[in-house]
C-alpha cells in the first residue's frame, strides 16, 4: 500500500501567539519534526499544506518535501484538508495519513500503527483512550467524500462521524493532545 503523509500546517496560531508550524521544541520547528514523524512512520511521500507565514514555513523544510499552499487557509482546517487531498489525488497512493503540526508528542510509532491498517477503503484514526484524535488514515475511496465535507474548521469530522472508522489504540504511545498555548520548553515563531 502506498501511503502519503499529509501534514496540515497552515494555521496562524492566534491563541498560540504565531504559526504553530514555526514553534520549536529543542530548536527544531514542529513542521520539520512532524515531516520526520510521517516519514519514519512509513509514509512513502509527505505533503505539507501551508498558509499563514507560508514563506517562512517553506524555508524550514528540505527541498524534497512537497508543499501545497492553501490559499483560503484562513477559513479553517477544511480548506487545508481539501488542498492536501487534491494534491494526494494527483498520485497513485492508496491512502493518506492526515497529521496536524500541533501534536508534538505524537511520534512515528503512532503513524506506523495507522499505516499498518492502510487500504483504499479504510478509515482509521488514533485513539488515545479518552477520545479518538489525529493522525487519521483516509483510504482513497473516501477522498472525494471527505473533500466535499471539509468546511470551515470541521475538517473531516462530519464525514468520519457518519462512516465506520477503525479506532487504533495508541494510548500507550502518546497523549495526542494538540497544543493551543505556549508551554515550557516550546518557543514560538
Description of the molecule:
The chain is an alpha/beta fold and 189 residues long. It is built from 6 helices and 10 strands. It has helices at 30-40, 54-60, 77-89, 108-115, 143-149, 157-161, and strands at residues 3-9, 24-25, 28-29, 45-50, 66-69, 95-100, 123-127, 132-139, 166-169, 186-187. The strands form 2 sheets. It has a 7-stranded mixed beta sheet with strand order 5-4-1-6-8-7-9, sandwiched between helices. A 3-stranded antiparallel beta sheet has the order 3-2-10. Helix 2 links the parallel strand 4 (45-50) and strand 5. Helix 3 packs antiparallel against helix 5 (143-149).
Strand-helix topology:
Elements: E1 3-9, E2 24-25, E3 28-29, H1 30-40, E4 45-50, H2 54-60, E5 66-69, H3 77-89, E6 95-100, H4 108-115, E7 123-127, E8 132-139, H5 143-149, H6 157-161, E9 166-169, E10 186-187
Parallel strand pairs: 1-4, 1-6, 4-5, 7-9
Antiparallel strand pairs: 2-3, 2-10, 6-8, 7-8
Helix pairs in contact: 1-4, 3-5
Amino acid at each position: 500500500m502506498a501511503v502519503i503523509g499529509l501534514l496540515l500546517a497552515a494555521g496562524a496560531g492566534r491563541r498560540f501567539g504565531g504559526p504553530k508550524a514555526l514553534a520549536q521544541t529543542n530548536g527544531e520547528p514542529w513542521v520539520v519534526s512532524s515531516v520526520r514523524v510521517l516519514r519514519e512512520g512509513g509514509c512513502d511521500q509527505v505533503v505539507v499544506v501551508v498558509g499563514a507565514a507560508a514563506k517562512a514555513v517553506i524555508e524550514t523544510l528540505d527541498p524534497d518535501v512537497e508543499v501545497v499552499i492553501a490559499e483560503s487557509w484562513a477559513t479553517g482546517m477544511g480548506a487545508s484538508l481539501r488542498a492536501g487531498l487534491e494534491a494526494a489525488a494527483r498520485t497513485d497512493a492508496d491512502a493518506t495519513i492526515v497529521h496536524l503540526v500541533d501534536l508534538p508528542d505524537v511520534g512515528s510509532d503512532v503513524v506506523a500503527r495507522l499505516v499498518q491498517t492502510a487500504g483504499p477503503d479504510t478509515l482509521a484514526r488514533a485513539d488515545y483512550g479518552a477520545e479518538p484524535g489525529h493522525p487519521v488514515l483516509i483510504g482513497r475511496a473516501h477522498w472525494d467524500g471527505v473533500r466535499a465535507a471539509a468546511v470551515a474548521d470541521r475538517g473531516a469530522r462530519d464525514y468520519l462521524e457518519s462512516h465506520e472508522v477503525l479506532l487504533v489504540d495508541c494510548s500507550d504511545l502518546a497523549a495526542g493532545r494538540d497544543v493551543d498555548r505556549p508551554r515550557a520548553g516550546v518557543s514560538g515563531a
